[in-house]
Amino acid sequence: MARTQSWEVSDELGRHVAPLVPWAPGRPASGSYRRRPGGGRKPLADRQIFAGIVYVLRTGCQWKALPKAFGSASSVHKHFQRWRGQGFFLALWREGLAEYDEMEGIAWEWQSIDGTQGEAPLAREAVGNNPTDRGKKGQQAQPAGGRCWRPAVPYRQRGQPA
Q1: For residue 10, what are the CA distances in angstroms to 40, 53, 87?
Q2: How far apart are CA 66 and CA 41, in angstroms?
Q3: I need a labelling partner for 156 at 20 to 30 A (CA). Which of 68, 83, 101, 147 fits?
Q4: Torsion-angle region of residue 161: left (phi > 0), alpha (psi -120 to 50) or beta?
Q5: CA angle, 68 as apex, 67 and 71 as ends, to 5°?
């Protein structure tokens, strides 16, 4: 059995993702377009683009370090930006959450909130000033043997004696 990496997109995941991929903006129907020989790269398949995006997000590599097997890095990044703007990843997250809820069941009744540490503005009077802030800003001592730095000459040309 072949071992798959965490960034590889399986066929099953590809089938789930395919209906959610937004349509690319097309060309106006008023003109006639024909691709010239050697006129740029061929368009990438949505599956290949998604596989490249998953690779970058799972490995943490830079977009420009994307292997050539996924196509042009700038093209994959352009599609990522467009899909993000069109809400593709939010729809994908919602779809995955709904599928997980069907499989395992999410306890929607019980939720918790994660907190962060921050300043408590109402507790400042009770606690007092920060112990590292001694209120001596602007009165720093000069280095030993040092003097205030001032240029010897306000302006001079290159090669002009000091």
Answers
A1: 29, 14, 22
A2: 17
A3: 147
A4: beta
A5: 115
Instruction: Give 55 or 104, the one with higher predicted confidence.
Output: 55
Q: For the beta carbon of residue 158, count every other beta carbon within 10 angstroms.
A: 4
* pLDDT band at residue 126 using 50, 70 and 90 as cut-offs: low
Q: Which residue ranges make up each domain of the chain?
A: 1-22+44-106
Angle (nearest 5°) at CA 108 between 104 and 114: 105
Confidence of residue 149 (pLDDT cuts 50, 70, 90): low
Distance, CA of 144 to CA of 162 (rounded, Å): 26
Among residues 40, 47, 39, 41, the alpha carbon closest in space to that of 70 is found at: 47
